[in-house]
């Protein structure tokens, strides 16, 4: 009896392995066949970018595609988000896959026939719009994943929820959006998601490679506003003023000591950056106020708390010492938690990535001080966020144009690996959880 049971388990194990191998071969063939379509989708999105919470054309194309695949489709989630639900033919867990949709207020300089020429108004200014972070590729990749998994749904052990999310780059002050709003509107419920996967193209990682990191992989971020108020005077008589420009300069210098003297950089990095400063409008007038905008980034809740406290203390006390006042708002309009890859899920899914890309092409990466609102999903369910190579082979990462710049460039030959990775992560997770 015991021998028969062992034999049965062995047979079932071999059958499961053979089934997984068959599905993986199907994924490979289907992803290769869709490469030109993925490129076409990406180029269309790239040529017609839309800013966060304005992805009307974009979301319309995605919704139509998901509907054509026979999915249950929800639109208007968190303003312009789209969610497709694919029910597999066998019982099992619910896996969510996410792509972001928004472009950035950047004027494109890349010389490609599908370069963006879109102009719009952002924060009261006329700006160009560009997919300068790769969200166009994320959407195209996930559309292909949806098509492939839909064609295999009879063999899927569970349900797949495709999340196309607006406003990952944040929204203007006073607006709501992004992953945080999607979570609030129940995107991880009905059906309840068991795990979520996402990827980000990277212009400084060679095509054919995938990088990952367990635990804190991208920084938590708070934006900040510091308003310094002094006393205005004629520029010829500075002794009659309390000069907020001089006070602001002293505050900026003081802020530089936070990371250099308060963060244990052998354990976690941190960043304090003042990215904008505005005060005055004429050479011979000392203004009354100066506004500074900046960003704080950390990898632990304790470091985040410390950064906020130090910035507040330095700004207010430096201003007070000069007879001025400083008002500090942190966060000012946006806060993203740490993008935290669940260690157990990461370890569990690492073999899937290695089989897909080849073990030598799956690399551990250091922490990234950029931020991602994928972190809001990871606060609620186990998640894994990986990085997909988009730099031409043989390129120099130091010279490759970085994200959020007018010259940002992606080698489209790497898209197929992204399609295969998300498909295989989904199938392998379902198989593991359904045994």
Can you walk through the features of this model?
The strands form five sheets. The protein has an eight-stranded mixed beta sheet with strand order 1-2-6-3-7-19-8-18, with helices on both faces. Strands 10, 12, 14, 15 and 16 form a five-stranded antiparallel beta sheet that branches. Helix 6 packs antiparallel against helix 7 (301-321). The longest helix is centred in the N-terminal third of the chain and has 32 residues, at 2-33. It is an alpha+beta fold. The protein has helices at 2-33, 35-47, 56-68, 135-151, 178-184, 244-262, 301-321, 343-357, 375-378, 415-433; strands at 72-77, 81-87, 90-100, 119-122, 125-128, 157-165, 195-206, 210-212, 215-218, 220-229, 233-234, 271-278, 285-286, 289-298, 325-329, 335-336, 339-341, 362-364, 383-391. Strand 1 and strand 2 form a beta hairpin. It has ten helices and 19 strands.
Q: Using only CA atoms, what is the Rg?
A: 25 Å
Percentage of helical residues?
A: 25-40%
The helix/strand series, from N terminus to C terminus, equals HHHEEEEEHEHEEEEEHEEEHEEEHEHEH
Strand content: 25-35%
Shape: elongated
Q: Which ranges are low-confidence, i.e. pLDDT below 50, for 5 or more consecutive residues?
A: 7-16
In short:
With 435 residues, the chain is α+β, with helices and mostly antiparallel strands. Helix content is 37%, strand content 26%.
């Amino acid at each position: 009896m015991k021998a028969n049971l062992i034999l049965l388990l062995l047979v079932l194990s071999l059958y499961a392995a053979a089934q997984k191998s068959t599905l993986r071969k199907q994924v490979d063939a289907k992803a290769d066949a869709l490469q030109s379509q993925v490129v076409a989708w990406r180029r269309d999105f790239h040529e017609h970018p839309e800013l966060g919470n304005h992805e009307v054309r974009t979301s319309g194309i995605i919704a139509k595609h998901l509907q054509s695949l026979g999915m249950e489709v929800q639109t208007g989630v968190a303003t312009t988000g789209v969610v497709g639900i694919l029910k597999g033919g066998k019982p099992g867990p619910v896996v969510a896959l996410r792509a972001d949709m928004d472009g950035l207020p950047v004027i494109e300089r890349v010389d490609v026939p599908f370069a963006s020429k879109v102009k719009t108004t952002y924060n009261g200014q006329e700006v160009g719009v560009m997919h300068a972070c790769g969200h166009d590729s994320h959407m195209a990749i996930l559309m292909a994943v949806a098509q492939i998994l839909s064609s295999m749904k009879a063999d899927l052990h569970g349900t797949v929820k495709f999340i196309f999310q607006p406003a990952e780059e944040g929204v203007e002050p006073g607006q709501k959006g992004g992953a945080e709003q999607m979570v609030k509107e129940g995107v991880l419920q009905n059906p309840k998601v068991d795990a979520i996967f996402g990827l980000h193209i990277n212009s400084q990682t060679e095509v054919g490679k995938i990088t990952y990191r367990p635990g804190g992989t991208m920084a938590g971020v708070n934006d900040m506003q510091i308003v310094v108020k002094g006393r205005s005077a004629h520029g010829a008589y500075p002794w009659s003023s309390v000069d907020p420009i001089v006070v602001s300069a002293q505050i900026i210098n003081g802020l530089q000591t936070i990371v250099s003297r308060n963060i244990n950089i052998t354990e976690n990095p941190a960043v304090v950056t003042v990215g904008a400063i505005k005060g005055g409008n004429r050479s011979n007038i000392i203004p009354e106020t100066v506004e500074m905008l900046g960003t704080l980034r950390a990898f632990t809740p304790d470091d985040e708390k410390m950064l906020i406290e130090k910035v507040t203390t330095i700004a207010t006390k430096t201003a007070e010492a000069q007879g001025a006042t400083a008002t500090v708002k942190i966060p000012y309009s946006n806060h993203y938690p740490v993008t935290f890859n669940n260690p157990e899920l990461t370890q569990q899914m690492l073999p899937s990535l290695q089989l897909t890309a080849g073990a030598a092409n799956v690399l551990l990466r250091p922490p990234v001080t950029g931020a991602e609102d994928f972190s809001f999903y990871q606060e609620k369910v186990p998640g894994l966020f990986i990085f997909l190579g988009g730099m031409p082979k043989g390129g120099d990462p130091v010279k490759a144009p970085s994200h959020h710049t007018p010259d940002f460039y992606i080698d489209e030959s790497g898209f197929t690996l992204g399609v295969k990775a998300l498909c295989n992560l989904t199938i392998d997770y379902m198989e593991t959880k359904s045994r």
